Amino acid sequence: xxxxxxxxxxxxxxxxxxxxxxxxxxxxxxxxxxxxxxxxxxxxxxxxxxxxxxxxxxxxxxxxxxxxxxxxxxxxxxxxxxxxxxxxxxxxxxxxxxxxxxxxxxxxxxxxxxxxxxxxxxxxxxxxxxxxxxxxxxxxxxxxxxxxxxxxxxxxxxxxxxxxxxxxxxxxxxxxxxxxxxxxxxxxxxxxxxxxxxxxxxxxxxxxxxxxxxxxxxxxxxxxxxxxxxxxxxxxxxxxxxxxxxxxxxxxxxxxxxxxxxxxxxxxxxxxxxxxxxxxxxxxxxxxxxxxxxxxxxxxxxxxxxxxxxxxxxxxxxxxxxxxxxxxxxxxxxxxxxxxxxxxxxxxxxxxxxxxxxxxxxxxxxxxxxxxxxxxxxxxxxxxxxxxxxxxxxxxxxxxxxxxxxxxxxxxxxxxxxxxxxxxxxxxxxxxxxxxxxxxxxxxxxxxxxxxxxxxxxxxxxxxxxxxxxxxxxxxxxxxxxxxx
Length: 485
Prior knowledge:
mainly alpha, 2% strand
C-alpha cells in the first residue's frame, strides 16, 4: 500500500470511529472524572514514600517513633481509597456535562458504590494463626507472638468463643474494595449513575417545589427521585448477589472483568501495544496520550494501586503478585520526555544538527523535554505525518517498553513501587521515586537508547533540511545579485 493510500485509509477508516468513541459521553466522563483522583494519588504517594522510606536507618527510626503509622493513615485515606474519588468524579462529570447540578449525582454514585458491597472484613485474628500466619506484632512491626503460638492459645478456648473470635467483622467498610481492586466496579457504577440520573431528570422525574422555597433546598428535592431510584436498584442488586452468590457486585466484577483485563494490560503484548499506539495516533495528528491514557489507565491505575499496597506491606515482588506494567510504566517510560521518547532527537538537535530549523527547535524543546512535554517537536519539527522520522518515533517507545518489561521480569530491577510521580517529573528523578536507584539508572539508559535510535534518522532528515536551506540562501543570493546588476 502506497504512503498516500495508507494515510487516506487511516484518516478515513480508522480515525473517525476512534474519535467518535473518544468523544462519547461515557469516555469524556471517564477521562475528566478520573482527573479528580489525581491530587489524592500524588499526595498519597508522598505519604507512601514516608511510611516506607527507602533508607533503612530512616525507615526504622520512623517506624520505632510511631510516625510510620501516621503516614500510613494518610496514605490509606488518600491513595488507598482510589475508587471513591473515581466513582464520585465520573458521575459528577457525566451529569455536569448534561447541564444539571452535578454534586448530588456524585454523592448518589458514592452511596450506590458502598451499598453494593458486603460491609464486612475477615477477622484479623485469622491471618495471624498457624505456621504461615503473620503472628501478632507491636506498633514497631516486631512479632511478639508467633502464628503457631496464637493458634495454640486459641485452641484452648471454648469452641463457641473460638468461632466468635474468628468470625468476620461486620458493619465496616472493606478498604480493599475502595482501592484499586474496586476500580472497574467504581467506573461501572459512576457511568451508570451519571447516565440514569441525567436521564431521569431529562424525563422530568423530579419534585418541583414552590418558588418561595430557597434554591439550595429545592435542588435537593430535585435530586431525591433519581437518587431514590438508583439507591433502591443498588439495594436490590446487593440483595441478589448476597442471597444467591454469597458475594457482592464489586468482588464479582473484580474476578470476572478486572483480573483478566489487568492481566492483559500487564502482559508483554499489552506493554508493546500501548507503546506503539501512543506514537501511532500522534503520527496522524491525534492526541495519542489522551486516547491511550484514557483507555489503558482504567486497568493500569489498579495495577499501580496493587503495587503500592505490596510495597507498603514490604512484599513487592513478582512472586507476591506485583505488576510489571502500571500507570507509571506508561507515564515514566513509554512517554518519557514526551510521546515517542524524543529526548534522543533533542540531543541530536543541540549537538549535531546543521539545519537552522532543527537547531532552533532543539533550543525551544530542551526545557519542555525535561518535563516530558514535546509538542514543539510534534507540530514544529514536525513529527506528525513526517515519514523521515516515523520509524524512530514508532520504534523507540516499543523498544523501551520491551526492554523495561524484560529487566523487571528477570529481576534485574524491582517492580515499580506504586508511587505515582507526576508525569512532568524529570527523567532519572522520577525513576528514583517510582523504583529506587536501580530504576533511576535504567531510566537513564532509556535516554541513551532513545539517542541511539533517533540519531541516524535525525541526521538524514537534518541533511535534507540543511540542503533546502542552503539552496534557498543560494537562490536569494542569486536574486539579489541580479537586482544589483
